[in-house]
Write a structure and sequence with these properties.
Order of helices and strands: HHHHHHHHHHHHH
Helix content: over 70%
Radius of gyration: 20 Å
Number of helices: 13
Distance between the termini: 56 Å
Strand content: under 5%
Number of strands: 0
């Protein structure tokens, strides 16, 4: 118990939890927007990889850090547009298309990396984002190092949580997006384009997913290497269900998983000599599954999720 309280009472632990949660925040917001519009995007894992590689490569070639962020978002939007074309316009299986996007985006990213840098033996480094020092806030006891000494992309992720919540629940556009995921016939009856809303949501959501990958190479690390995404996209899909498709709960779920992951790292350092390391590695996923089970049965999912739409269709 002393070890537990020491870990939970450490500002460094909570700083690590927020840092680990940041790519998940981007990813879960992107998935949430897609699914709110009625489209499941299983391409998220590959889009993470594409965003990570595209953003890092752009910075490596001299685009600057924020230029790399824009390039990563654009790469994600392109794969989102492809997914939207296959699922929304052609009406193909969202599951099959999403898996295909993941395989395509991952393969294209690795191919581009090997083509652009055929002779490298170790990943080249870039000058990544550094933690900000916010006057007054960064110097606060406990909360300063825990919350206010993060990199700019972490603060950008938090801004997007507020922005997505504002758009979804306080604007006509957000109402239309939620309606198109629940009852697209009512949206068409209002003279709005179901196809246009869904395509736009998937493109924007995919761009946000790619920012999660960009965080890994431009903030958490300073290089791109194979396997760095490590299933974070699939975690985001589960977190959307945990969050009941609500941005505020999505933030909570991402922070919860980040805390689980940061906890296992520190717990392993404390008692790793008497417990196999694999137990600690599976701990955040096991705890996430338990949390998902507890809330999934009460989740209010979008009623038109996974349902293709054709103009003039009625249910």
């Amino acid at each position: 118990m002393d070890v537990l309280f020491d870990i939970l009472g450490s500002a460094n632990f909570w700083a690590a939890a927020v840092r680990i949660a940041t790519p998940l925040i981007f990813g879960v917001l992107g998935a949430l927007i897609c699914e709110r519009a009625g489209v499941l995007n299983l391409g998220i894992e590959g889009i993470f990889v594409a965003g990570a590689m595209a953003g890092w490569l752009a910075v490596y070639l001299g685009a600057g850090l924020w230029g790399g962020v824009l390039v990563a978002a654009f790469a994600g939007a392109l794969f989102g547009l492809l997914h939207a074309f296959l699922t929304v316009i052609l009406g193909l299986s969202q599951h099959v298309s999403g898996i295909g996007i993941t395989l395509l985006a991952t393969s294209v990213s690795y191919f581009t990396y090997r083509t652009a840098l055929p002779d490298v033996t170790s990943p080249p480094r870039i000058a990544a984002f550094q933690p900000l020092n916010i006057p007054g806030l960064s110097d606060l006891p406990f909360f300063g190092p825990a919350l206010f000494q993060q990199t700019p992309l972490t603060f950008l992720a938090l801004v997007f949580v507020a922005l997505v919540a504002l758009v979804l629940y306080r604007t006509p556009l957000g109402l239309a997006i939620r309606a198109v995921g629940d009852n697209p016939a009512s949206v068409e009856a209002q003279g709005l384009s179901v196809v246009g809303l869904r395509v736009g949501a998937v493109v924007v959501g995919s761009a946000l997913m790619a920012l999660g990958g960009a965080f890994l190479t431009m903030s958490a690390f300073d290089a791109f290497f194979f396997g760095m995404v490590n299933g974070r996209g699939w975690i985001c899909i589960a977190l959307v269900v945990f969050a009941s498709w609500q941005p505020g709960k999505a933030l909570l779920g991402a922070l919860l998983f980040g805390a689980f992951d940061a906890f296992q790292i520190r717990l392993q350092a404390q008692i790793g000599q008497v417990v196999p390391g694999q137990v600690f590695l599976m701990l955040p996923y096991l705890l996430s599954i338990v949390a998902l089970i507890l809330v999934a049965r009460r989740a209010d999912y979008p009623r038109a999720l996974l349902q293709p739409w054709t103009k003039g269709q009625r249910h």
